[in-house]
Amino acid sequence: xxxxxxxxxxxxxxxxxxxxxxxxxxxxxxxxxxxxxxxxxxxxxxxxxxxxxxxxxxxxxxxxxxxxxxxxxxxxxxxxxxxxxxxxxxxxxxxxxxxxxxxxxxxxxxxxxxxxxxxxxxxxxxxxxxxxxxxxxxxxxxxxxxxxxxxxxxxxxxxxxxxxxxxxxxxxxxxxxxxxxxxxxxxxxxxxxxxxxxxxxxxxxxxxxxxxxxxxxxxxxxxxxxxxxxxxxxxxxxxxxxxxxxxxxxxxxxxxxxxxxxxxxxxxxxxxxxxxxxxxxxxxxxxxxxxxxxxxxxxxxxxxxxxxxxxxxxxxxxxxxxxxxxxxxxxxxxxxxxxxxxxxxxxxxxx
Amino acid sequence: xxxxxxxxxxxxxxxxxxxxxxxxxxxxxxxxxxxxxxxxxxxxxxxxxxxxxxxxxxxxxxxxxxxxxxxxxxxxxxxxxxxxxxxxxxxxxxxxxxxxxxxxxxxxxxxxxxxxxxxxxxxxxxxxxxxxxxxxxxxxxxxxxxxxxxxxxxxxxxxxxxxxxxxxxxxxxxxxxxxxxxxxxxxxxxxxxxxxxxxxxxxxxxxxxxxxxxxxxxxxxxxxxxxxxxxxxxxxxxxxxxxxxxxxxxxxxxxxxxxxxxxxxxxxxxxxxxxxxxxx
Lengths: 351, 280
Ligand SMILES: Cc1cc2nc3c(=O)[nH]c(=O)nc-3n(C[C@H](O)[C@H](O)[C@H](O)COP(=O)(O)OP(=O)(O)OC[C@H]3O[C@@H](n4cnc5c(N)ncnc54)[C@H](O)[C@@H]3O)c2cc1C
Ligand code: SF4
Ligand code: SF4
Ligand code: FES
Hints:
The structure holds two protein chains of two kinds.
Chain A: E1 2-7, H1 8-18, E2 23-29, E3 36-40, E4 66-73, E5 94-99, H2 101-114, H3 122-129, E6 131-136, E7 162-167, E8 170-175, H4 178-187, H5 195-211, H6 226-230, H7 235-239, H8 247-251, E9 258-265, E10 268-275, H9 296-315, H10 326-330, H11 337-345
Chain B: E1 7-16, E2 23-30, H1 33-38, E3 46-51, E4 55-60, E5 71-76, H2 80-87, E6 93-100, H3 106-109, E7 113-119, H4 124-134, E8 145-151, H5 160-168, E9 173-178, E10 189-190, H6 193-200, E11 208-213, H7 216-228, E12 236-239, E13 255-256, E14 259-260, E15 267-269, H8 270-274
Parallel strand pairs in B: 7-8, 7-11, 8-9, 9-10, 11-12
Antiparallel strand pairs in B: 1-2, 1-6, 2-5, 3-4, 3-6, 12-15, 13-14
Helix pairs in contact in B: 6-7
The complex binds flavin-adenine dinucleotide, iron/sulfur cluster (2 copies) and FE2/S2 (inorganic) cluster (FES).
């Protein structure tokens, strides 16, 4: 295992240097804004690594909230009339600096959806492949963080190319992949850390993991049938307060549902892929007016069944949640996925 | 390959399919000959018809894999995209994305008797199936074929010329029916599909499968009849519909439990459907 020591005095100039080879994204707190967000960093802007969790996850860097898939003209005098063309896309190297380990792990879950044996969503996969993930270990997890229960964790390396650990006047950068090594070289960070430093990482990791108090268990959920949990009597209670605002799905790094819409300006148009949400009634509304998930209860149940049961059964590789806690923090009516998971895991199916 | 990129096609023919003009059959030719090979499909699959500026709609493929050089779809005028499609003209360019979804389980059905039950305009992929089954290369691979097909009135039956040709053949038993008619010359059945199934369909056994496609109300009342006739739930094959966008299992809206209707379906056995939350 290779660990690079980065003096914080070199940090800013290294990030500036790396921008020659990468488009760099990182958390920043914009003026007059309450929350930090991941943005592309222009010249002279360094990622704000003191920013605690961003409100939105960085999923939009790979999966924009709205992305043009095609452009076309409906002008019948054009040879190209009604033919779909892919707009020019920038898949040059990009890097997300300061991504939290759970957000990087989330991309690996979402990849299961967009990169399948039968179909490959080129927009998502090409952007993902172009990206280098420079993670920042979480040394003081928030009280809502339950990432150690979800195969992630504050120092987890899943989906990362480099893991940065903050040690006041310097970072220790654990090199996880070749992509990560290339990035560090391009930034001019080459100073190999000594053995004593490296041992510190494990100590910090243990400390951070111990700080996480929140746990969820889903060990029993897989043993129940889908219909048993679906028909359980607790969904009314769980969904009662929900106002179907969709916030939980928009802030979630693992939610991937989208819509496809055409937009016209005169005779030129674009076909867009837009974030969508299972919380909205339109999501499943048939033209006939029939709606298989027409009630709030059905939609809330869909969200939790997808994350905590269907995904688990389908891939046999954990739940579709990395434990970041965002949906708990931002839900206006305090619906808490940890409590739902608990309810699902501890319920007794009627015999 | 970009899975969202439709093959460009030209509308070659448009035929009004029902007397109330709510359904039209569109025949498409691929602009690039190679695309026809890439679009190799089987009866029961669907495609996304793509109209730039309006959107995409999932529609069952009505032509049959044994018909070469074109593909056809029969489309009911319902909302935004279908209404626009009904206004388009021969020669217009649009797109087709597919083929999508699974097909009826043809390999498994070889050597079996097949009962086809269709209602209303959900007869499209069943038409594709019948053409496939009756093709000289295929007919001998299958046992008895019975078809119960019903519509509101004679003028609402799709593919009427083909229906009367099939009526004349002795290697397929047709049971055409209408809910009601004042046509004194109507020589077929009068009655709802479930009733005709009860009267005319063969009994179920290990070697007989039912394929059923139609409006929810028809399916609801046909199921108990099939049970009475002795069809096990794993011998009843259905095609489901849900609102769709991507058609390739990614956009997340068409699921019934962990199954995606667009990718794992649209064809399921009743046995499989029974194990899902039936959110369709
Ligand atoms: C597998 C499958 C096969 C089908 N085969 C046929 C067929 O052979 N002939 C036929 O006439 N109709 C068929 N339908 C139904 C047809 O897809 C809808 O009637 C059509 O999408 C309505 O689109 P619209 O733009 O006119 O309606 P709008 O209500 O304006 O719909 C807007 C958008 O919503 C989506 N949508 C709305 N309702 C449905 C729905 N029921 N199913 C899927 N997507 C929907 C579409 O993406 C559409 O672009 C099929 C549906 C499925 C799922
Ligand atoms: S954030 Fe809360 S209220 Fe809003 S849709 Fe999600 S669960 Fe419902
Ligand atoms: S479900 Fe909630 S806690 Fe889990 S990853 Fe999504 S936002 Fe984070
Ligand atoms: S239509 Fe998108 S997942 Fe089925």
